[in-house]
Amino acid sequence: MAALIALLSVLSASSMAAGAEWSETTWGGEVSRGWDVGDSNLWVGGYLNNKLEVLEGEPNSFSLADVGVLLRYQLTPTISLFNETDLDESLTWEEGSGVQVGSRVLLLERLYADWQPRPDLTLRVGKFLTPFGLWNVVRRAPLTWTVEPPLIAESLFPDHITGAAVGFQTTLSHWTLDATAYGQATDELYAGASDTVASGAGGGRVSAGHLFGPAYVELGASGVGWVNAANGKWQDGFGGDFACTAGGNYLQGEIAYGRQLTGGASPNWGLYVQDAVPVFDGLWGVLRFEHFDPQTGPSVNGGLVGLAWRPLPWVLLKADYQLTNRNFEDLNRGFVASIVLFF
Amino acid sequence: MPSRRAALALLALIVSPLARAGAAPEETLAVVVGRSSPVTAVTLDELRDIYLRRRRVWPDGRAAVPINLPPDSPWRDRFSRSVLGRAPVDLIGYWNARYFEGITPPLILGTPAAVRAYLVHQPEAIAYLPRSEVDDSLRVVLELRE
Q: Which of A97, A120, A216, B137 has a beta carbon 3.0–4.6 Å from A170's, enabling a disulfide?
């Protein structure tokens, strides 16, 4: 990894030197940009995520939880290839157990080709994140406001689709409109990266955004039918979501419902509402409430109070205190924090 | 009285960023391309899609390359609010999501002179400048008035 970073740094530097005629050019910005590698049409991004957990009933731990590399290659202006590979569970310190070298599994998160036959149309083939709701498509912790995701982002629908998708995106009379339909007719490609795996699926998502006074509001709806690879049973899931941004304030929420179509299992559903409020330049206070009705067991009501601080475009620090009426999956009462470095 | 002064000071603190945000000059903003560009006009909706990088190619299949002014530029703030419907700070979440797909925000050029120089050599690029900064090397494809 270090060798790759060094090589890319050299290539990147030579690219800037070649572009010296743009002496007045600045390439900075308020968000991380990754690297354009020379004139090769290759873009490289990625992140390193370290996580501290001080949770009730569990040993304290600090882990180099996640290293991700993003590659995008622009074959032609209308055809691109994209890959995300993650190195998970590489190194962990746990109270009472000391330092442990994890499985260091390389996970193929995404691998797909995009073709834009028209400016408003995208055809995608490969393995990609299921376009369901808001969270799943930016599900990696480095790009979210909180350390842990809400419970409804975990198990109501498959994380990934290995298949094809067609996306339509346009703006009409200041309304931003998006529609995506997708299908999967095979097993998931390298399924190790997924918590919830489908062996077949079909679904879609529509969303619309518009400016209302000072607030930009987006509404979306998603639906998916899928075969759960764990038990071979058909399931379906439906969801609605909204996002509202104004004055640096990010308010968003999702509701999702999932059920098994055969076998008589109870449906499960959940929702969350989250607000990230700007405190001062680069620092946000975050509040989240969530409710989840699992297939078995009592309901979970929880939430968090946290901070997200981006002192530099390539550094993000998050600290959350999680509250819940009972510990369930990733929602445990206690303190979690993470330091993310983008590269 | 001191409490009233404190309240006024607090009000000034709250209002001053808003005042700064609204301090963009009233001069018309021109959306421009280089003279060698085949683009002759864009609509406001197309411009929004290009600057949000939802639309990344021109109709003839060539890459569309949007150029931004720096984040602290009052022209950038005005362009962002009037075309994208959001201030730059409200787009951080949007660009985080796009970064995750390998799609980065528009390039940033530091000055109008750098923008002009870039457009002359890059026919696929599009940018915005105050009308007084537009010279004969550029073609105006849309004007944005207050």
A: A120
Which of A26, A137, A172 is closest, CB to CB, to B97? A137
Q: Does A140 touch chain B (CB under 8 A)?
A: yes
In chain A, residues 310-339 whose CB comes closer than 8 Å to chain B: 310
Residue range A218-244: mean pLDDT, rounded:
93
Q: Quick one: fold of A46-342?
A: Porin (2.40.160)
- Kindly indicate whether the ipTM for this predicted assembly is greater than 0.90, answering yes or no: no
Indicate whether B7 belongs to any domain: no
For residue A118, count other CB atoms closer than 10 A to its CB.
13
pLDDT tens for each residue of A282-328: 899 999 999 999 988 899 999 999 999 988 878 899 999 999 999 88
What percent of chain A clears pLDDT 70, i.e. is strictly above it?
A: 88
Cα A158 from Cα B20, distance rounded (Å): 46
Residues ≥6 apart with Cβ < 8 Å to A212: none
Residues in Cβ contact with A52 at an 8 Å cutoff, skipping those fewer than 6 apart: A60, A61, A62, A335, A336, A337, A338
Q: Does residue A250 sit at the B interface (CB-CB below 8 Å)? A: yes
CB–CB contact B97 A26 (8 Å): no
CATH number of the domain enclosing B41: 3.40.190.10
Domain count, chain B: 1
Which residues of chain B make contact with A78, given a CB cutoff of 8 A? 57, 61
Closest CA to A74 of A34, A44, A43: A43
DSSP letter (8 states) at residue A267: P
Cβ atoms A14, A37 nearer than 8 A: no
Segments forming the whole domain that contains residue B96 = 25-144
Average pLDDT score, chain A:
86
Q: What integer is the mean pLDDT of A35-42?
A: 89
B57·A170 Cβ contact <8 A = no
Q: Which residues contact A252 (CB under 8 A, 6 or more apart)?
A: A134, A241, A242, A243, A244, A273, A274, A275
* pTM of the complete model: 0.84
User: What average pLDDT does range A162-189 have in this prediction?
Assistant: 93
